[in-house]
Structures are given as C-alpha cells and as structure tokens.
Design a protein that fits this description.
Layout (H helix, E strand, L loop, with lengths): L1 H26 L2 H38 L5 E10 L6 E5 L16 E9 L11 E14 L2 E14 L6 E12 L7 E8 L7 E7 L4
Parallel strand pairs: 1-8
Antiparallel strand pairs: 1-3, 2-4, 4-5, 5-6, 7-8
Length: 210
Amino acid sequence: MNNEKNNTFASTLPFINLSWALLGEFAKIPEIQSLIDATKESAKKRSQQEQIKAEREAYKDTLWGEVNSYKNETKLLIFIHNNTPETLKLFNTNFNIKDISDCDIPPYEIATLDESSYFDHRKLGVVNPGNKTFIENFFNYGAGNKQCRFETRMMVKSSFGFLEPTRTPVWEHRAKSIGRDTLVCSSRLRAYKSEAPYSYCLDVHIGEES
C-alpha cells in the first residue's frame, strides 16, 4: 500500500515540474510581466501607506496624551484631515488665531487646532444645577465653492443628587457641507477624559476618507 502511494506521488512530480516550467515561460510574456510588476508596485505602495497611517496615528496619540495631562483646564484637540486634492483655506472661525491666512491645509495633509478653558468646579455646585458650557467652537474650511462648517461644544449637565450633584459630560460635534457645491465632511470623537475636566479629541475629515 505504501509503495502504491509513493508511486502515485512520484508520478506527479514530472507534472509539477512541468507546471512550474510553464508558469515561468508564461511570466516572460510582456503583458503578463507588466501585470506582475504592477501588482508588486501596488502592494508596495499599500504597505507604505499603511506605515504612514500608523505613524500618524501614533503621533496623534502622543499629542492627546500631552493634552490629557492637564488637570484644571478643559482641552479640545482637533485633527483636521484634508482628504481632497485641493488646498483647503480657513474662511471663518472663533478659535484664537491671529492670521487665518496661515492656516491653509495642503492636499492629503493633517492640521491641528486646539482650545482650552479653565474648568471652574464652582459652576457645578449644588446651588447651580443645569447645563454649563465650557467649550464652544466652530470653523469653516473649504476651497472654491465647497465649504465645510464644523461646530463643537463641551458641556456638563448637572442635576441634584442625594449627596452631591450628578454630573454628565456631553461632547457635541458635527460637520456639514455649506458651500454651493457639495463637500463630504464628517467628525468623530477620537478620545475623551471621562472625569473632570473632561478634555476631548476629535478627528474631522474634509473629503471622503480613503
């Protein structure tokens, strides 16, 4: 029985060798070789893009770690992704920026904006229930007839509790197209501090995410 198996396996070896030989000859055809080269190049670019993305994410995590270390200030950190082939310009904002002409975002690059507010615990005292806003910002970015309006607010809802007030942080954010032509844009809560001073971090994408 073992001899029969060995003979069967041995009889397939010439076929395997022939198959590899045919594949080798097949790959010598210019069109096929071009396809193989293109596939290799595509895989290489994809690997490079994944590496760049990983490095960017690590850098964003580092910045958030620095922002999240503040104890008495509510911090807002925003990463603005330009996913378009055009340079995005800042048209309007209430962020503390001296010259908005210095805030252009080149194609496929990421910019950052940040804001801070002193976290006053007295606003959340027993005698002051209700909603207290600590951060409220907006910006309009765009190119030509396309614009993205982004708005965010961090407030704390405070209500009477049995022994102390109940505090619930709320991180609001939205991005929408407001230009003559439609511009895909979105926002996402990337990270947040669940305890006071309730700092948070957002990703804003202008243009479709790749």
